[in-house]
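Full entry
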Amino acid sequence: VMELENIIFKKDNKIATITLNRPKFLNALCDQLIKEINYILDLLSNDDEVHVVILKGSHKAFAAGADINEMKDLKLISHIKKDFIKPWEKISKFKKPIIASVAGYALGGGCEIAMMCDVIIAADNAKFGQPEIKLGTIPAAGGTQRLVKSVGKSKAMEMVLSGSTISAEEALSYGLVSKVVPIEDLDKETINLAGIIANNSLPILILAKEAILRSFESTLSEGMINERRLFQSTFELEDRKEGMMAFIEKRSPKFKNN
């Protein structure tokens, strides 16, 4: 069992919450913190009781970026031998739905791990940005890739080339986040959405997420073929049958994750 020093973990009612907890460093993403997240994600991927994961920070910062102290002396050869960003990718490859609940700063790596999640809910004080250019480097955990797909080429260019931040309202208008709520309502709104999602069948949630990610990562025709196959495969699941019977019988479905 790993001792958790940089995150707080709890689970309740099919929802697991991972809270980034390095307050002195505005939740900067050190190697150990990422290790702890990955340790928990490994546990959760095999835990059928958990349907949805919430990833959050504090009111002041979701995550203010990668840990510059760990990075400042690296050379190209160190990256070739050990790609320290590779372990971050586990978040984007996790098969269950993840909601990023963002208050305060989501900058650099913080913005990137929020984008690796499936839905971003932002508090009204949230600030998003890729300021790597100001440190003489560029984003490397998807900041030049996912951002383009979320906000479009022109805005992504502006953000990455200038290193400027955008407000929660701007992030909403560009499609980077799904909703903006007052900071005092952030936890309640996030848990509310997580609860609505968690009421659904876990295997079907996993297939739905896979279908959307395929759209994000491939051509329309390939995505359509995949969507149709995933749809057809739900017809082997008891939960699909139960969902349709419940609709016909005008009652709530009782999903059993099979």
Summary: The CA atoms of residues 131 and 163 lie 4 Å apart. The two ends are 29 Å apart (CA to CA). The beta strands are 7-12, 15-20, 52-56, 61-63, 98-102, 105-107, 119-123, 127-129, 165-167, 179-181.
